[in-house]
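Now for a sample.
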Amino acid sequence: MPTPSIDHISSLLTLINSAARTLQAVYSNGSGGIPRLDDTEPHPLDGKLSTPEMKEAVQVLEGACAQLCATLARPNHTVVNKFFLTALEPSCLRAALMFKIPDILQSRPSGMHVVDISKRCGVEPSKLARILRLLSTKHCFREVDRDTFANNRLSVQLLASNPLYSLGLHMTGDMTDGATKLFETLADPKWGPSFFPAHTPWNKVTGQPMAMFDFWAQNPEMNSYGDRFGIGMLGWGTTVEAAAVVNAYPWSDLGPGATVCDLGGGVGAMTIQLARAHPGLRLKLQDLPDRMVQAKNVIWPAECPEVIRENRIEFKAIDFLAEAPIPGCDVYYLKNILHAFPMAECLTILRGIRMSMKPGSRILIHEYILQTAGCPAQLAERQLKRAPWPLLSNYGQGRIRQYYLDVSLMVLVNSQERTLDEYVKLGEKVGLKLMKVWEFGEMGGVELCAQDDCMEIMSCDAIF
């Protein structure tokens, strides 16, 4: 690591310049050129998975820019602008979403006066203009003339036809409302120490006695919330490039006829991609009964009928808190499952899988892997890539999304994202050991095997 005498400001500027040039070259060498903020048509690269170099450059650029501003600006300036006043942003964004302002602006690409916008959505025009001006100043929408607004590269992501619209309603509604009771929940002598899923800030603000997802499931009038959340998760998955696992993990090395169990995989969005990319795999999809009926009778006949004809997919309902999965699979794949549960339930799930594993089986946990911001790496964390100096070791603002998600899970369902050391400890409690750490887009993969399997843990240099 560089000595403290090295000018870290110059180092941050070097990182910013290098990352920006890397991204500039990616766009210049591809089709479509460098995008402009005023663009409303998707760029050809927007729908493609980022290369590791592009993803790294974005993370470094965001992290270095934020760290440079936090270093050079007066601290009270940064605290007020970046922490206090940003609390208003979700409410302004929610107003734009609920009134479907992006959809209204689509009818006039050159810009629409706020009076005309207000006639379409029934809002007092001067108040709406102030909200849209704030969002435009944050580069979401653009003010083309006084009180005249148009869509841009960011705001078109909020069209009602985009899954991010549903995600935005969830994040600016349930999550933001719940977060207002975070302090009261933490200070509550009963709820503060509890990890019970109905002892959350969301429960405080809504007054509901049951966990959020249970409340949605047991009340028909809340079906739209569950549906909205499911659609929103499609937008989340695309944003975080979860599909990188399809190519980044060596599925073909498992050999012809290898079996992969997607445990808790819903209707099989990820399994469908695996089936298309790796026809040699034999796939097992397990989730709750309703999801299996939907997957078997609706989704897969429409999306992958040939996989059903070739008998390469098996659908089997499961309650993985009470049952073990299909035995003898080569890989048990869990995407965004453990982060929804506290430790006791995670151990129950992993014990069930351990009972089903055969010699050579492994578990692939596909979730965020949190890193500490500045402390020395723990034993397991040494397998994780660390940001270049002088950035925070976890890339700071460049990887902030996973830390937001971690706190949002606490707010909504009393669960959490975890560090690599925490995943290792979970595995050890049920007789599993760490094999390898993977990078799948901005998420990670923790590969575990049985402790009595003779498979050597790979070194940091071999992994990255």
